Amino acid sequence: MTAPRLLSQTEFSACFTAPMRNVTATAEAVVDVWSYAESIALPLGRVTQLLDVTAVYRDAANRFDQVLIGTNVKDLSLVVIVDTLRCTVHGHCFLDLADAYGMDRT
User: Fold this and answer.
1) Most distant CA atoms of the chain, gap in Å
2) Interval 14-29: pLDDT, tens
3) How crowded is residue 64: how many other Cβ atoms within 10 Å of its Cβ?
4) 43 forms bridges with which residues in the sheet?
5) Residues 98-105: contacts with CB within 8 Å, 24+ apart?
6) In this predicted model, what pLDDT tens digit does every residue of 73-100 receive, in sequence order?
7) Is 0.85 topped by the overall pTM?
8) How many angstroms separate the CA atoms of 83 and 2, rounded?
9) How far is Cα 73 from Cα 77, in angstroms, rounded to an integer?
């Protein structure tokens, strides 16, 4: 298993090739993201619990899948980046959806 690696914003951004596609319904697991996710030491800031996978997005180059896992913090997801060509976890980051996409926090 890959040791947990928190990606910088630059590293995370490098995993995007637009347009990203929602492949939640059709994605097939090439790695066990749960083993990876459960190896991340919690609590981590406000995050004390990981919930279910909420979505999987694939970049246009078919290189990276971004697996979004809900947390106990509203609008904050753990994103596990899977390198689909190497069948490995590239790393992870926490994504505040409200901040990233200008969502209302109410």
Assistant:
1) 40
2) 998 999 999 999 999 9
3) 19
4) none
5) 98/74, 103/75, 105/74, 105/75
6) 999 999 999 999 999 999 999 999 777 7
7) yes
8) 12
9) 8
- CA distance linking residue 53 with residue 67, whole number of Å: 7
Instruction: At 73, list the tokens.
Output: 């913090």
Rounded CA-CA distance 94/60 in Å is 22
Question: In the structure encoding, which two tokens stand for residue 57, read together?
Answer: 């997005």
Determine the Cα–Cα distance for residues 93 and 41; give it in Å rounded to an integer.
13
3-state secondary structure of 88: strand
The backbone torsions φ and ψ at residue 20, rounded to the nearest 5 degrees and listed phi first, read -75, 140
Q: How many residues does the chain have?
A: 106
Give pLDDT, residue 104: 64
Contact 65, 20 (CB under 8 A): no
